[in-house]
Amino acid sequence: xxxxxxxxxxxxxxxxxxxxxxxxxxxxxxxxxxxxxxxxxxxxxxxxxxxx
Length: 52
Ligand SMILES: [Zn+2]
Known about the structure:
By secondary structure, this protein is an all-beta fold. The chain has a domain at 11-45. It is 0% helix and 42% strand. It contains no helices and three strands. It has strands at residues 11-17, 25-32, 39-45. It has a three-stranded antiparallel sheet, with no helix packed on it. It is elongated. Zinc ion is lined by residues 3, 5-6, 8, 33, 35-36, 38.
């Protein structure tokens, strides 16, 4: 994945399970750009497989 601002390749920082803290998303991935030092978070949408 490339940086929105400078198109340099982003460095993966880690994944965090946020399922218990967030209604809509279950995981957030952190990425950073080594060139312009932008910081990117990608939220993964929860799949509503099990409705209760
Ligand atoms: Zn950048």
